[in-house]
Amino acid sequence: MKSSGITDTGSKRSSNQDCIYFSDKPVGPMPNLYIVADGMGGHKAGDQASRMAIDITVEFIKKSTLENPIAILKRAMLYANNEIYKTANLDVDLSGMGTTMVAAVVEDNKLYVANVGDSRLYVIGDDIKQVTMDHSLVEELIRNGELERKKGRNHPEKNIITKAMGSKDEVIPDFFEIDLSPDDKILLCSDGLSNMVEDDEIRDIIVEHYSLDDTAQALVDRANYYGGSDNISVVIISE
Hints:
- By secondary structure, this protein is α+β, with helices and mostly antiparallel strands.
- The protein has helices at 43-63, 69-90, 137-143, 149-152, 191-194, 199-208, 212-225, and strands at residues 2-8, 18-23, 33-40, 98-107, 110-116, 120-124, 128-130, 174-179, 185-189, 232-238.
- The chain is globular.
- The termini are close together.
- The mean pLDDT is 91.
């Protein structure tokens, strides 16, 4: 696998609470590992939550003796969630901190995904497919038939998250297993990209660029061109 990633403060924010990780080399029993986390809960708290989520998850995976990617991701994320929650309850300055998290592993043409919150994973081939489902108030309204999807992008409560790492003592991620085609590309991103750039335009940018580094930068540039209202993080992967 080959990958590239970038995180950017955006045009409106003074700090970056996003955090990314990408490794094409083995991480413990995993053949590779890719993560995007988007922190929340104030400057200091958001920064720490996203960094803790990734650092703890990666270190847990490095020491894991399990073999199944989904089982490994589940154990790692449950442990990270508990550590973030305990830390938040011990420090008043960190009270209420949390983070989204989307993590992926590719093995034998299969993609294994885990997510909490509204950071997303897409698979891009002939079209673009959002694999993860947002844990957000707007997404719940859409799934319940109370809101049209096209109106969700500009909904005033767009940023309300219904599930986050560290916000409760226990969190259950969503898990997905996807068969990959040889030419598929994989995108993990924070909502700083997906809220600013339509899915079809994301696909067009990915198809137009050969270099993964150029692709990642082009996605961030486009989100900033449209206003860059939040931190922007992307990890792009191909075979």
